[in-house]
Fold this protein.
Amino acid sequence: MKTNFCPGPISRRSFLQFGGLSMVGMSLADSLKLKAALAGGPSSQAPIPSDTSVIFIWLPGGPPHMETYDMKPDAPLEYRGIFQPIKTNVSGMEICELLPLQAKIADKFNIIRSVSHEFADHGGGHKRFLTGRVPATPVGTVNDAPAVTSIIFKCLTENGGFKDGMPPVVFGADAGRAGIDTFANGPAYLGSANTPFVVSGDPSDKGFKVQNLGISREMETRLEDRMALRQGLDHFRRDIDQSGVLQAMDSFNQNAYQMLTSAKVRDAFDLGQEPLRVRERYGMHAYGQRGLMARRLVEAGCRFVEMVWENPFPGKPQPTDCVYNWDSHAVNCNIFNDARWRFPAYDQAVSALIEDLYARGLDKKTLLVVTGEFGRTPKISTAVGTANKVSQPGRDHWPKAMSMIVSGGGMRTGQIIGATNSRGEYPVERPLSPNDLWATVYQHLGIDHTHSFLDHQGRPMPILPFGDAIEELLPSRSS
């Protein structure tokens, strides 16, 4: 999978480094950056509820729908592959034999089989899916429209700061893969202030540590002194500031200060506080521990957590017939051997997360979405693998059909929503787009997706240009 690594705008992590807080003064560059962040203008949204949350599991590369949730056992061999469907605890619902743990709890999630779009490149697919807009270019991962993470961040912080110091939006990915533009998570015209707090690295690694959370008592005292000095200076400067820039910068600095000094925030990220049996149930791998971290974060008050699941075992030897993420071209991997290597960790992590949300009573308020940017070609191809030099089977990019699962959110579960044709090529029932999914997510969070922000030219741009909440995923009236 090709990605564009660009330093882009200042990251949340860079801002939270103590030396970069610029407590004593604000440079012209700071002012300009903040003005760009304020480009959205004042909000006219109704108050947003504070008790709902979303966990978004992102599977970059595109998981194969016909090896997961939309199997076609009656299709020709070159379409159906070698794996068999198994029954779940929901009558009439079958999934891949490599997902037995999910099969036992299928009554707690829904399968959507009919989402599609038109962008077959990873860059275009990421931008199309993660922004809810048709991208200006079909390749590249630098957004021309803000990603969902930035939109949600802005909506949740416009009328107040971080609650108890907890960042409202968190993004987690492998080390070296956490750049804001790697997976098209850029803020575009919403400005660099509206980006998620980034957690980089493998939480299952013994040496893992979330950077820039917590400081020594001595440093905290110094920080308090500098904050007091800053406030004194700003009382004078605010008198001559008519733009609101200083006031907004005060809020941004206060959020950073609260994050640095909040025990609640530090505890939320500390997986060591979980019983070992819980950590092992999720799986001592990147998928499992990121899933567990997501649950801890929403339980602590974070509103939107995006966790990227690429390699389940980053930093460890990878079989030569497997691939780093879900991009199962024949040149990258043997799709069937890759599934045998990857799916057990995936099955363990997803099933544990779903069960845990329900066991802890989070299923009514927390919506879980698990998806990639597209599916894989229904017809299997063969090619010589780049790493192992062996002819092997694979599937290419296919945005015309994909499958995903959704759970929680107070919705009725155990449903199959939509269907593809007999060869898994395109939807034939309940065709949906990524925008319909996001309209559902926004409604769950209490965000009006018709609300507009101003772009760089001062034009009002609605959060979603089209799309409707998926009726089957809305909370049941009894919940």
Q: What stands out?
A: The chain has one domain: 54-205+283-473. Confidence is low (pLDDT under 50) at residues 1-44, 215-223, 243-249. Residues 54-205+283-473 form a domain with the Alkaline Phosphatase, subunit A fold (CATH 3.40.720.10).
